[in-house]
Specification:
Layout (H helix, E strand, L loop, with lengths): L4 H4 L9 E3 L10 H8 L14 E3 L2 H12 L1 E2 L5 H4 L9 E2 L9 H6 L19
Parallel strand pairs: 1-2
Antiparallel strand pairs: 3-4
Helix pairs in contact: 2-3
Bound molecules: zinc ion (2 copies).
């Protein structure tokens, strides 16, 4: 029952995400990754620059998927407003990441949306 960590992150390449594999770590697996892989993409990723890269950290993989599939916040959170994080836009995934936007989730930073209710309906986007 050995898992092959390498092939499992190849789906990340479709997002233009450069995945830095750490051979000593396993495949990221989380309820959010499982959920987000089933949700359709809504946008190409808006990385700030080609240097943006993810590792196989669960938070970063979740963040990339969320950025492709979530909803653009009507107003950027305080970190996005100060150009922190790998993406140009502030994107939220309703009901996920404790209310954090994808930039803050990537950075594991405190997102100003975590202290507020999400500013749009949490009703499914389907
Ligand atoms: Zn943000
Ligand atoms: Zn944020």
């Amino acid at each position: 029952m050995s898992c092959t960590a390498d092939s499992d992150l190849s789906f990340m390449e479709q997002y233009g995400a450069l995945v830095l594999r750490d051979a000593n770590r396993g495949i990221p697996a989380s309820p959010d990754i499982a959920y987000l892989r089933e949700v359709k993409d809504l946008r190409p990723l808006d990385f700030r620059g080609p240097e943006a890269a993810v590792s196989n950290s669960i938070y970063r993989v979740e963040s990339v998927l969320g950025q492709a599939k979530g909803q653009v916040a009507p107003e950027a959170c305080t970190n996005c407003a100060e150009n922190r994080g790998p993406y140009l836009s502030c994107v939220l995934v309703p009901g996920r990441f404790g209310g954090s936007c994808c930039n803050c989730h990537y950075l594991r930073a405190n997102c100003s949306f975590m202290r507020k209710s999400i500013p749009f309906s949490v009703v499914s986007a389907h």
